[in-house]
Write the C-alpha cells for this entry.
Amino acid sequence: MTDLILTTFDWVPEMPRGYVRDLRVRWALEEAGLPYRVESVPFRTRGVEHFSHQPFGQVPWLTDGDRSIFESGAILLHLGERSDALMPADPRRRGEVIEWLFAALNSVEMASLPWSLYRFAGDTEDTPGRQGLERFLAARLQHLESVLGGREWLAGGFSIADIAMADVLRLIDRFDGLVDSPACRDYVARATARPAFVKAHADQLAHFAAAD
Amino acid sequence: MTDLILTTFDWVPEMPRGYVRDLRVRWALEEAGLPYRVESVPFRTRGVEHFSHQPFGQVPWLTDGDRSIFESGAILLHLGERSDALMPADPRRRGEVIEWLFAALNSVEMASLPWSLYRFAGDTEDTPGRQGLERFLAARLQHLESVLGGREWLAGGFSIADIAMADVLRLIDRFDGLVDSPACRDYVARATARPAFVKAHADQLAHFAAAD
C-alpha cells in the first residue's frame, strides 16, 4: 500500500489547537486504519513550495503516492473512495454521503465559520449585517436539528460526511452556539466519543505542543 | 437516457434573480448538452415534500431517475461523472477538478457569501468582526488572483470547478469586491461569455419573470 503523508503546520497559536483542519484528515485515517505519517511546514513563513501544494497557503494537504491533494473536503472524498469504513461503495448510499459532505461545508460551515470570526474577535456590535449572519446560522441549525433528531448519523452508517459535519459543529459549540440545538450537541458528543476522533485530537494537540 | 429534472423556486424577489443556485446546475446541463426540464416549488411556503428533497428548505435539487440530489456541489459532481465536457475521466485530472470544486465552495464562497450579506444589508459599520471578515475574503482573493493570472481555467480545460468558482466570483463582483483582482474579473468575463452560461442565465431570469 502507498504511503500516505499528511502535511500540517509545525506550530499554531493556542487558540486554534484542536481545531486545525488536519484533524478531519487524521480522524478519517484513524477510522479507516490507513497507515500514514505527519510532516510539517512552517506556520510563520509560507513559501513557494507550500503554495504549490495548497494555493491559499493553508493546511492540510495529503500526499498519496505521486498525488498531492488539498481542500479537506477533497481529501475526505479521496479517502472515502479508499475505504468502506468512510464511504459505502453502493452508488445511492455513496451519493447520500457526498450530499451531506457538501452540506457540512457549503450549507453549515459557510454560515458558522464567519460567525465564529465574530465570536473570536469578541465583537458584540449588533449591526444589520451581523443580524443577517446570525439569522443565516440560526436557520441552518434549526433545519439540521430536525434532521439529527431523527437519525444517528447523516447518511446511513458513520461516514466522511459525519467527520466534516461534527467538526463544523464542534467549533460552533466552542462559542456556545449550540445552546438551542440539543440534537446537534448529542450528535457532536456521539462523534467525538469515537476512538478515532479521540486519537486524532490528542495527536494534533501533541504535534503542536511538541513545537512550543 | 434518463430524464433529468431540475427543481427551483417558482418565484424569487428581484435582488437574487440571476444569482439563484439553480444557475450552476442549468449551466452545467447546458455545457454537457444533457436534456432536462425545470420544475418549481413555492418560494413562500416550503412544505414537508420540499424538505424531503432539500433538508435546509433551499433550492436547487436534481432528480435523475429514482435519485434526488441536493447541494449544488454534489449535483455538479454528479453531472461531472456523467459528462466529459464537465470533468475529465483521467483520475489525476478528475482529482484536480474536485479539489478546485471544494476550493470554490469552502475556501472562497465561505468568505464571500457572508461578506455579501453585509453589502446586501448596506451595513458599513467598521467593527472588529467585520474587519476579520474583510481580511478573510481579501486573503483568499489575493491567492486566487495569483492562480488565475497564470491559467485560463482552474484545472486543465473548463470544468464544473469553473462553474462553481465563476459563479462565486460573480456575486463578489456584483458588490464591487473584485476591484483589486483584475485576473479574477477577466476569468469571470471569460466564463460568463460562454454560450452555456448566457443561455442558463437568460433561462433563470425568464423563469422568475414568468411568475410575476
About this structure: The beta strands of chain A are 4-9, 36-41, 61-64, 67-70. The CA atoms of residues 89 and 142 of chain A lie 31 Å apart.
